[in-house]
Structures are given as structure tokens and as C-alpha cells.
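I'd like us to work through together how a protein chain folds, taking it slowly. To get us started, please write out a protein record for me. Go ahead whenever you are ready, and we will take it from there:
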Amino acid sequence: ARALYASTAAGVVDITSKGVTDSSQSSSPFGAPQQQDTTATGTGFVVDGKGHIVTAAHVVDGASSITVTFQDGTTRKATLLGKDTATDVAVLSVDPSGLTLHPLALGSSASLSVGDPVAAIGDPFTYQRSMSTGIVSGLDRTISAPNGFTVAHAIQTDASLNPGNSGGPVLDASGKVIGIVDQ
């Protein structure tokens, strides 16, 4: 597990999304909707040397500003390139100039079996760079994403996943990404 962490942690990033939510349920005494500043935190991972980062769509949904923090503490503003709420996946882009990026290799979940070891690296409860390990508990599960959409073909694991892990990588024993945390 130590070697797995050492070889992959540099490719994991912290994501902070700031946005404005229109909460029309909480109106002022004058009947106008209140604007409420919100901040969401999560995890993502670098997928190439061009500055592309994958995370969960709900981590960046509705964000007016997205900041990515790398393992060395460097921060960059990110642009949302696209998202798929049906699978709860989003792709971000940061300017890669001056950065030493550590892309994570993508694997395949097709060959997974129940009992295979997996690991997740992320920021549970906003603590940076925590790793949890476990096994594949089940395959082809159907879950509800935080936005209410149904996500099919999910991998169930008993690795500890908590708020803040969302969008981070689920890794196989060789350090390849075989899933994205949807917490």
C-alpha cells in the first residue's frame, strides 16, 4: 500500500468550488430570494500532461469559480470543460505551464472481480491526501448520485470513503484508475 501511495498521490488534486445558490425557499421579509454563497470541496486526478483533470460532476456543479491544489501546494484556477450528470463525471482544465504533472494511468474495470484489492486517495472531511484500502465488494451496482440521477454499473467497495473523497480515484493494485469516488 505504501508503494501504491508513493506512485500515485502526486496525481491526485484537491478541488474547491465556489458558487452561488439561489435558495428561493428562504426569502427575505421583502419577498426577494436570498443568494447564498456556497463552497464545495472534493478530489480529482490528473489524466494527462495537458492539464486535464477528472472529478465528480457534483463537486463542480453550478460553480462560479473552481480552484485546483496540487500535492506541492501549487494552486490553479480551473475551467470546466464538460460534465455528464448521468454518470457524475466532469473534466476540468488548468494551465499546465510551470507545473510538473503526474498523470494517473487509466485501467479497466471490466476485469475486476469481487475480492480484488482497491485503494482510494482523496480528501475526506477536507483532510488532505488520505488513503483508504479495501476490496471490491460488488460489481454492476446501481446507485443514486448526489444530484438524484441514477448511476449504473458502479463498483461497490468497502474502502472507507467520506465527504471530500468525491471525484477522487479508485485504484487497482497496480495503481491504475478503475473508478471515480461518488460519495
The chain has two helices and eleven strands. The CA atoms of residues 42 and 112 lie 26 Å apart.
